[in-house]
């Protein structure tokens, strides 16, 4: 891997993180709920997008996948949100966040991969 490719991926990772923050804040303002809908939205759209990229543009998977989508999606925030919901007594929301994100993310990644491979 070239240094330029690594730097492009890193820059796109920073951009992805900024976009994630903006999406999360915008969704939180609209939803106004304790449930982390914004984080769920970025993780699910990111799962789908990565599937499409890997299926359609495997050569761009590092730059767009590890770069932009690596910054855009967030496993750690999902886990923290899940634990916080559980700690705050919102057990059903905690389980729905963890299991819903996992199941929906796998299905969307598979759908994206199938669509990307068909392109």
Structure overview:
The chain is 86% helix and 0% strand. The protein is mainly alpha-helical. The chain has one domain. The longest helix has 29 residues. The radius of gyration is 15 Å and the shape is globular. The mean pLDDT is 97.
From the N-terminal CA to the C-terminal CA, the straight-line distance is 27 Å
Overall 3D shape: globular
Structural class designation: mainly alpha
Task: Write the element-wise H/E pattern from the N-terminal end onward.
Answer: HHHHH
Q: Compute the number of helices.
A: 5
Low-confidence segments, given as residue ranges, are: none
Please describe the biggest sheet, giving its number of strands, its sense, and whether it closes into a barrel. none
Helix content: over 70%
Number of domains: 1
Radius of gyration over alpha carbons? Answer: 15 Å
Mean pLDDT: 97
By DSSP, the count of extended strands is 0
> Strand portion, in percent?
under 5%
Describe the SSE topology.
Elements: H1 3-31, H2 37-56, H3 61-72, H4 75-87, H5 91-118
Helix pairs in contact: 1-2, 1-3, 2-3, 2-5, 4-5
Concise overview:
This protein is mainly α and 119 residues long.
Q: Which descriptors would you attach to this protein?
A:
single chain; about 120 residues; mainly alpha; 5 helices; globular
């Amino acid at each position: 891997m070239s240094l330029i490719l690594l730097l492009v991926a890193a820059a796109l990772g920073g951009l992805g993180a900024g976009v994630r923050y903006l999406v999360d804040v915008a969704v939180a303002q609209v939803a106004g709920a304790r449930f982390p809908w914004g984080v769920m939205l970025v993780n699910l759209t990111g799962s789908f997008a990565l599937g499409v990229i890997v299926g359609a543009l495997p050569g761009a998977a590092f730059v767009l996948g590890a770069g932009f989508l690596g910054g855009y999606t967030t496993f750690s925030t999902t886990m923290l949100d899940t634990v916080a919901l559980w700690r705050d007594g919102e057990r059903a929301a905690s389980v729905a966040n963890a299991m819903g994100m996992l199941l929906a993310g796998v299905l969307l990644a598979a759908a994206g991969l199938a669509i990307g491979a068909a392109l």
